[in-house]
Amino acid sequence: MDLLKDKVAIITGAGTGIGKGIARAFGREGAKLVIASRKEANLKATADELRQGGVEVLVVPTDVTDEGQVATLFAQTMEVFGRVDILVNNSGVFDGGPIEELSLAAWQKVIDVNLTGPFLCSREAMRIMKGQRSGRILNIGSISAQMPRMNSVPYTTSKHGLVGLTKATALEGRAFGVIASALHPGNTETERRNKSNTPMDQEPMMTVDELAAVTITMVAAPPHVNVLEAIVLPVGQDYIGRG
């Protein structure tokens, strides 16, 4: 307990799913949380749950593809807490299909949320963290960053790009004590998957809390240690050797 005591953490996409699981895990370890996503109702429900456990939470509805809203997210965090110790870029969407049938709008939506959003948030975080000479940025990627599924061109491309963003950010932050990492989840049981019934949703799953436990290891590492990339997946998932 208290591995993140008094650390200020911004988590995007925190109203449901993996982001909510990460928020719970961080809260149990003593972090002060800023939770963001587009859907305010989900954020408020998550905040109520966290506050019942004694966690200090700031809710900031944010569309991570909107430059002005991202700037507001960080400005409000600084106004309330005065610093940013951890940023978790978790907001993400999926769209796909055969490449010859994909619309430009579908491609752009996924790239905007999964790649431009983390860039905008990381840019704001770096402006603060470089001045602090400390901070961690954790990007939630996917095993699709290493091995794609069929009919996933926008999603797979965005997650490959997120690896590049992570490494470039880690390099730029190195001299300032700012650490960037990427966590690549395999199949994770979320609200969305519980409501769908595709063949992929019948594959072996892990829980969001099981995945979130790994994020604590990554962001609570000593300041001279970086878990640059981690792949976490159910043992039974068809990943190694797929293709």
| Sheet/helix structural class | alpha/beta
Count of the separate structural domains: 1
User: Could you give the order of the helices and strands?
Assistant: EHEHEHEHEHEEHEHE
Question: What would the principal axes of the Cα set say about the shape?
Answer: globular
Terminal residue distance: 41 Å
The CATH C-level name is Alpha Beta
- The value of Rg in angstroms is 17 Å
Number of helices: 7
For the sheet with most strands, the description reads: 7 strands, parallel
Strand order of the largest sheet: 3-2-1-4-5-6-9
The name of the CATH superfamily reads: NAD(P)-binding Rossmann-like Domain
CATH topology: Rossmann fold
Q: In total, how many beta strands?
A: 9
Folded structure, characterized:
This protein is of the alpha/beta class. It is globular. Helix content is 44%, strand content 16%. The protein has one domain: Rossmann fold. The longest helix has 29 residues, at 104-132.
Give a short synopsis of this structure:
By secondary structure, the protein is α/β, with parallel strands linked by helices.
Defining key terms:
alpha/beta, 44% helix, 243 residues, seven-stranded parallel beta sheet, Rossmann fold, two-stranded parallel sheet, 7 helices
Topology:
Blueprint: E1 8-12, H1 17-28, E2 32-36, H2 40-52, E3 57-59, H3 67-81, E4 86-89, H4 104-132, E5 135-140, H5 153-173, E6 178-185, E7 188-189, H6 191-195, E8 206-207, H7 208-219, E9 229-232
Parallel strand pairs: 1-2, 1-4, 2-3, 4-5, 5-6, 6-9, 7-8
